[in-house]
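Trying the structure run again after the queue cleared.
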Amino acid sequence: MAWVLTLLLLAGVLWLAIGGDVGGTVLTGVAMLSVGALALHGTLLRPRLAAGPGGLLARTVGGAHRYSWSEARLRLRTTRRLGRDSLTLEVESGDHLLVFGRIDLGEDPRDVLEVLTTLKGQALS
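Done. Tokens:
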């Protein structure tokens, strides 16, 4: 959807530029670049979190990070912002803390934690 929105905003930029609306062109161009950057981020960093028998692989802007099951601590965190509860999955290892939301995971963080806990239990036994 972000790529489609980027293309629609690009069409809007061209339309406004042809019409001579400089202010609208600049604002729509900034929106187009912002949505395009988010679309690129989402495309390049998928999947954000992968798990296997050896542990976790987390992809971030800074690169891929591998964590063994023995060093990774998993937990759910609920925060309240603007009257809404937001549930995230936190992966902590040493000085590193990675936070994944529903959009990052593509699933409910509770379900992901359940699967990861099962995988971790199987790997450590």
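Residues 22-44 form the longest helix (23 residues). Worth checking whether this holds up in the mutant runs.
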